[in-house]
Protein 1
Amino acid sequence: MNATVRRTAVVVAASAMAVSLAACGSAKEAGGSGGSGEKKKDGPLSIGLLLPEDQTARYENFDRPLIEAKIKELCSDCTVTYVNAKQDASVQQQQMDSMITKKVDVIILDAVDSKSIAGSVKKADAAGIPVVAYDRLAEGPISAYTSFDNEEVGRVQGRALLEALGDKAGKGQIVMMNGSPTDPNAAMFKKGALSVLEGKVKIGKSYDTTEWKPSEANKNMNGAIAALGRDNVVGVYSANDGMAGGIITALKGAGFKELPPVTGQDAELAGVQRIIAGEQFMSVYKPYKPEADAAAEMAIALGRGEKVNADDTIDSPTTKGVPAILIPPVSLTVDNVEETVLKDGLYKLNQICTPKYRAACEKAGLK
């Protein structure tokens, strides 16, 4: 991915992000790079919300309810039409066409395939419907974008893996289990991780994992162990927690006496529990609320024909200078579970510390 971020102000802090956007006020001249620029009347807006899949827990458990709640808070009369593509790019294209036919005022889109959705984004633009790219940078004339600093996500993962490896970094090989090749974020995670890892550790095998599937990660990890030899694998870069689960299952099945450090991302409940149990070294905690809030605020502003107030811009392969809000990620280890996912209310203590993990939680000081 050759997207280039231009910093125009200090990076927005995840814990205190303020985006000054009018919610249900008077219409002003439209901003952004897409949409017709026509002025919308005051009153209810119709907002389409398209999420990419339901295998990763975050979308149904966090992104959707947080976005819907923020829209309701900002504009009680606004309505949200929600669909999930279940990892099928052609289904998502049909869903976009349906939103255009329904003449929604604005679309929030988390693309399954950033390239293949470009035609649908063009259709929306031609129909005067602005599109907010959410979490993944869709191609086509999008009007705004919010996500995490995705190269920094990869750097956070890479630094954590090197920290966990210590002097083993020069004595063995690691396996890189990257995300789906259709997801532009995966390319940015990979780029960020490689910027930290290359030259400091030998990468024995590297895979781009079809559709982020844990089963594919499990299969690929088994292949890597067979090719490299069990004793030569000292660590695993896993781009997310779901794949980390499949990787760890493969490592256990291969008879590792001590599991090598494995990274992750998304702070999924199962991932947090593996971290506490000592099976997974880290995850990347991405506070979903500020990202969801930004998407809702952008959508309402654009639906009103108002200009998005964003501190960054980003270039996609097809669109330059897209207003963007990028949120910094946090490295999650056993040492800061309490200060992150528990403090922010992502999970309750009893959700993490089930009977299976009670002893591990007590050892980690989680009581």
Note: The chain is about 40% helix and 15% strand.
Protein 2
Amino acid sequence: MLKVVGASFGRTGTSSVRLALETLGFGPCHYMKELFTDPAHAEEWLRVVDGGRPDWERLLGDFTSTIAWPAAFFWRELAAAYPEAKVLLIVRDPDSWYASMSRTLYRTRPVGTGTEPSLGVRDRVIERIVWQGTFSGRFADREHAIGVYRAQLDEVRDAVPSGRLIEFTPSSGWKPLCAALGADVPDAPFPVANTTDEYVRRAEQAGVIAPR
């Protein structure tokens, strides 16, 4: 049963916050890697993206929280399906967010529109949810992409009651997140994971992008 619905775009600190949620007992946390590790799971997401009626318990019944895409694309539907769950909105400076997205996810995406049979299922899900569904195929237009990002923040703030919404910046550390979730503050540093440099280094080592 979901207790936390993530409404944030990727590259806002979601990997760090995922580890934090799991440390606080709100795991397992669903994130994009699930598309890469479970082909049947990716196929089910593709069915939903194609307009199929979602079975959220089938997709997310084994998880206690979600973070980033693909689930964040359906944050409204998930918030309605799990009315007792908190809605988590991670906030990052828009310019810094766009720079990170450009250097990481956008730089390593397969070229396509998400309908090509040559793309694997997971890549079709990501292309159609993120690059086409969220950014309308215009992520390279910086002003457009940042406008979409800002609009997402406003939409979540407007739609979710203040008592249910958790607006959080990872640099603020454990205390505000723990207070919002009613959890004890761990005796450990707040996680820092999957930084832009780490992502680029892994992509270079895997041969996905050429080293600079």
Note: The chain has one domain: 4-205.
